[in-house]
Design goal:
Elements lengths: L7 E3 L6 E3 L15 H15 L6 H24 L5 E6 L1 H4 L8 E7 L5 H16 L5 E5 L6 E6 L2 E9 L20 H19 L3 H17 L12 H14 L5 H20 L13 E2 L18 E2 L15 H20 L5 H7 L11 E9 L2 H12 L5 H8 L3 E5 L8 H7 L14 E11 L8 H10 L9 E10 L1
Parallel strand pairs: 4-7, 8-9
Antiparallel strand pairs: 1-2, 3-4, 5-6, 6-7, 10-12, 10-13, 11-12
Length: about 500
């Protein structure tokens, strides 16, 4: 018997409701939750979900900012002679699974010629600075697959993408597959976040279980040091698809059981990925996760991508493509630890869930560290170029392990901002021609280093290769780095 739930998908602004047909799932587990699972869910919610809920003040401030951005965009679009314009919230906020202080993803859509994209990124930031009070901290990221304006205002972080096409008339057009052949590649990628979110939303049989389980797993991943797509770990989109996949197989289970099954499935899959591949079996025998089986027929994985969590709509990209060998090993170790806790302890007790999400002691687990620092003259220049370095540091642990035999490298997915006095005292970014104080802004990240028996090879070749990867860094006199050194605890 196929199980097909009734589904209603709402535009996040509340002005459009779409009735969506869903694909049936084959052989779902129709087991109803037990009383023990209900007790476990209460304990999990108290420990892992409640502390991540936003306050009414935080929600209200974000709502006010989003409404203001929408009003500003409407005025801008009218000035650009666009007949229709609207904003669309997507990502974790659209699915209501955001963590506190998380970025909110917004897509601004206008009808008109495709070249409105260039006008948007060249002129809209200035309009935002002029209209918002106080003026927001802001910079554009144009080199990304999906270019965005990154904005921070009163502690609220917004990423604003843009799409434009003559055929767009309203939010429903964004998820209309019939329009895809008429769109260029950049526009398809810009729409992908919204389209993926709607596909995930309409695939979920029990939204309450999905909501709580996704928040709990993101909370666990953050605390255990395996969250952050930029650093080669799990990201919000990947976690949402992975949880939705479990929800499809267990449509009547409540969130504690969804979390347990999530750990079982992905511990097993990462175990397989860490085993040496059999000749001829890669990549077709690799475990793949999707919430839409049709996507699997359109996707040919790149040989460098280890974990496959496929976006459910075109362009069918791999949401976990940034995960590299060392990060996969870290993720597998945490999944193994988590599953052991959930199967060997009483999950009806809050102590079990507290142990599951206990913060990982990164600096206590390693004796040696590689410190990677970037310094800048101003916050604006630093935000633009410091992130450039941060987004590429995920490759450094793999370079170390590949080129420095005898070392195991563990990346901390957290960026530290030291005080100005630290920059001056450490002498970072200065030489005899540059007096101290010219580069007061800094970002520091760390990689834990563990010896594996034999005497490790020198780190110099790996560091040189990493610096060569950053040859496009064009901060000029405004930013310097990366500065790399080895420390011991």
């Amino acid at each position: 018997m196929d199980f097909v739930p009734a589904t209603v998908v709402k535009n996040v602004m509340g002005d459009v409701v779409l009735n969506v047909d869903t694909q049936p799932w084959k052989n779902p587990d129709l087991t109803k939750p037990s009383s023990e699972e209900e007790k476990a869910t209460c304990s999990m919610m108290n420990v892992m979900v409640k502390e991540e809920l936003e306050s009414e003040e935080e929600v209200g401030l974000r709502k006010k900012l989003l409404e203001t951005i929408d009003e500003i965009f409407q005025v801008w679009a009218t000035a650009m002679n666009a007949p229709t314009a609207f904003t669309y919230i997507y990502g974790s906020v659209r699915l209501d699974v955001q963590l506190r202080n998380a970025d909110t993803d917004v897509l601004c859509v206008a009808t008109g010629a495709p070249d409105l994209r260039d006008s948007f990124f060249s002129s809209f930031p200035a309009v935002l600075r002029q209209e918002l009070d106080p003026a927001p901290a802001m910079h554009t990221v144009l080199q990304a697959i999906v270019p965005v304006i990154k904005l921070e205002w009163k502690g609220v972080h917004i990423d604003i993408a843009f799409a434009s096409h003559p055929r767009f008339t309203g939010p429903a057009d964004i998820i209309d597959d019939a329009l895809l052949p008429q769109l260029d590649e950049k526009t398809c990628h810009s729409l992908a976040g919204v389209r993926n979110g709607e596909a995930v939303a309409r695939s979920i049989p029990n939204m309450t279980s999905f909501w709580a389980a996704t928040r709990a797993i993101k909370h666990w991943a953050m605390h255990r040091g395996v969250y952050g797509n930029m650093y080669g770990f799990l990201g919000g989109g990947g976690v949402a698809i992975m949880v939705a996949n479990i929800c499809q197989h267990y449509p009547f289970r409540i969130c504690s059981e969804i979390v347990l099954q999530w750990f079982k499935k992905y511990k097993d899959e990462t175990d397989k990925l860490l085993q040496p591949a059999n000749p001829g079996s890669y990549p077709n025998d690799r475990p793949t996760t999707s919430v839409n089986q049709e996507a699997l027929h359109h996707f040919v994985p790149n040989h460098q991508e280890l974990l496959c969590v496929i976006n459910p709509v075109y362009p069918y990209t791999n949401n976990t493509r940034n995960i590299l060998g060392p990060q996969l090993r870290q993720l597998n170790a945490e999944l193994t630890r988590g599953l052991a806790i959930l199967t060997k302890h009483d999950i009806t007790k809050e102590e079990t869930w507290a142990l599951l999400s206990a913060p990982y002691d990164f600096f206590g687990q390693h004796k040696y560290f590689m410190e990677v620092a970037v310094v800048g003259k101003s916050n604006e220049l630093f935000r633009q170029w410091g992130g450039y370095v941060g987004s590429r540091i995920r490759a450094l642990p793999g370079l170390i392990e590949e080129m420095c035999e005898g070392l195991e490298a563990t990346l901390c997915p957290e960026e530290f901002t030291p005080p100005k006095e630290w920059v001056a005292s450490e002498g970072l970014g200065y030489d005899e021609r540059m007096p101290g104080g010219k580069y007061p802004v800094a970002s520091v990240q760390y990689i834990g280093l563990t010896t594996k028996g034999s005497a490790p090879q020198p780190l110099g070749p790996a560091v040189d290769r990493f610096k060569h990867m950053l040859k496009d860094l064009k901060g000029g006199d405004g930013i310097r780095g990366p500065f790399i050194r080895i420390l011991s605890s």
